[in-house]
Every structure is written in C-alpha cells, then in structure tokens.
Amino acid sequence: xxxxxxxxxxxxxxSVSMILTxxxxxxxxxxxxxxxxxKALELKPDIILCDVRMPEMPGLEFLEAYRAEEGDALVIVxxxxxxxxxxxxxxxxxxxDYLPKPFSADQLVLTLKKAQEREALRREVSRLRxxxxxxxxxxxxxxxAPSMKKAIEVAxxxxxxxxxxxxxxxxxxxxxxxxxxxxxxxxxxxxxxVAVNCGAxxxxxxxxxxxxxxxxxxxxxxxxxxxLFEAASGGTLFLDEIGDMPASLQVKLLRALQExxxxxxxDSESRTVDVRILAATNKDLQExxxxxxxxxxxxxxxxxxxxxxxPLRQRKEEIPLLVxxxxxxxxxxxxxxxxxxxxxxxxxxxxxxxxxNVRELENVIERAMVLTEGPKITEExxxxxxxxxxxxxxxxxxxxxxxxVKKHGAVLEKRLIRRALERTGGNKTKxxxxxxxxxxxxxxxxxxxxxx
Length: 452
Hints:
alpha/beta; Rossmann fold; Helicase, Ruva Protein, domain 3; five-stranded parallel beta sheet; 49% helix; elongated
C-alpha cells in the first residue's frame, strides 16, 4: 500500500514516514500542496495524508485540484486542534476521513488500516461489477482457449462498425451466440435481432420469408406480409447456414446487400432497408465457391470480417467451465440440486470428441442431470456413446490380409450410423446432420447395412 504525506512540517513528515514504514507501507512525502499534487498525479498513491493548513496550496485547494484531475486515492486530512469545521468541509469535497493533530502512532495506523479496508472493499466491488457486466455482455459464451478469446476480441471490435461478418465453425460451436454478442455490442443493440436458418426453410418459401410478399402475389397470399429484412430494419439480420441458400436467392440477397433495397414477392417497387447482416455456416464457403455452389461475389460481400470458432475438441480446457455452467443453468430451469460431476465422469467428457460440440455437451449434461440419483453426475449417468466412443481401427485389429479400405470403410461407416441413431434416439433427420449426410443418403445406407 503506497502512502503520500503532504505537510509543511518536516518533523511531522519524518515521524509519520518512520511509523508507516515500520508498518510495511511504502511512503513518499511532499512539503506543500503544489508539490503534493504533482507527486500524487505521478505516483498514483493508494492513500494521501494531507495537512489542511499549508502555504502555496492549502489542503482544501489541493483536494479540489486533485479530484478535478480525476485522482482516486483515499485522502485523509490532518487538522490542528479546533479546525473540525475545515475537516468537515474537506470531507464534503471528497476526503475519506480526518486525523486531528496531535495524534499518536496507534491513531495514525488505525486510521490508515480503516482506509485500507475501505479501499480493498471498493476494489472488490469494482471487480464484481466488472464481472457482472462481462456476464451480461457475453451471456453463455465461455472463452478460456486463446482461439475463443481471439474470436470474442474480433467480435467486440467489429461490433462498432457496420461491416458484414461471416462466422464459421462446426454445428454447435456457438455461432449464433457470437452473432448476438456483435449485435449487443453494436449501436443497434436496442433494435431487433432477427435470426433465420437458411437451410431449414424450403426453397419455395425462403424468398417470401426474407423479402415478404404483397397480397395476391400467389395463391394463399390474402394480405401483405412483411419479410425478415423489413422486420430487422434498424437492427441485425442473422443468416444462419447461409451455405445452404439456393443459388436463385443468392443473387437477390447480393442485390439487397449492395443496394440496401428489397422487393417483396409480387411487388413492382423496391423498399429501402437499413439492416446489419451477419452470416454463419458450417461449410467451407471458399470450397463451395470453387465448385460453383456459392457465388463468389456474394462470398466477398458477406465475408468482410471472418470469425472462425474452433470445435470443442480443440478447446477442451473449456469443458469443465461449460459443465459447471450447464449444471447451474439446469438446476435453475429444472428445479434440481445437482452438486457437480465426479472426476471419472469428467475424464470421459474430456476424452470424448464431441462432434456436436457445445450443443452436444449441453444435451449430455441435461440428460445426465435428469437421470442421476446422487448428488453428483457419475460416469453411469452419461450416455453409452460417451462412455464407449467409436475408436479408429488399430493394427492389432487387422490381419495381414485385412487392409481393404472398402471393407473397413464400410465397417466404420456402419458403426458411425448406428452411434448417430443411438445419440438422436432414432431421429433420422438429426442423425443425418451429425453424419453430414443428406436424409436420402442416410436412408439408402441404413437399408444397405440392414439398420432400417
């Protein structure tokens, strides 16, 4: 703890310095208010002991000048007998306490200890407020890995600008959370955040969802409908899985981004929209551009600032933090009282590859919390595919004449399909997503392997 003594009496400066040095304080001294102000601003002490009556710059004048320079040290004024009114004036101007002269060593130390405790409390409150602000800003985003911290850093920087952002990463890595963070940190935070999954809406409906339609545009269009672009006006439109957008709509989206205008289906006039575009995909759009599946000009338009979220298997240091977060969340949501997770169960989670990333981990924890009968999640509460994950074939499993890629590729494929179906409870659509297959391809393979 650093202390600055400001007093025109040399003997008092020396005696106070000796007392405080013996108590473990680091002490600096100044002989008047002007010198004290210069040292206070340069040294940034934790506590300032300042005499009220001094030549050049009296204590009250020093205090006003110091606070005007945004000095935040605790100031204790020292007053001669009968100067209580001056001490009260000083406290009104921002002094923490006063110390009447003459004072004993014990009085001096006790007053500083009280000030020290207050300063520690003030710093702790400030730290807690900062943590609350971070929690409010970042919501469910837990970032311990350097790659995730970098992603959040880029997101908060780009939030202040209107540039389009492309967020890439596997399913379940938190792309929408990053998009929401950008929106909340932007000057559009008070306006709508509208999210749409471009791969979840049939092609013939996606255009009207995005741009809206006018009455009579097609059979069933009995009234005008506002599209998502207009609904997000003044705010942010998040185009999730933009890599699945049909080619016919990519052209219209590009025009909307370039011109800031949209045209409702069936309308002859364009409408101006003010929308910040954020996009996300689990595909390699540069590769999609090469194959002609995605327009190059649209790619360059949406990927002004790219942000990549690494898979959970590359940031396993975050798994314990995420587990704790989900346990707290589902204790509140489900009215449970799960106390934590034992070390054997945690080891299984750390060893598991999590192809579904954070979303899969959340699913696993919720399931385990519902099923557990003890105070903590154990390995028996975890699903079978986590306890016994699919492992690659090793040399011990292969004979000298069993190196057929076709044969063993089929074996591994069958095992993966079975695991995906187990994990999704037989839901073929979700299993196809995990396997990165089309639903039709999955049905064919299930039939071939006798899994239907």
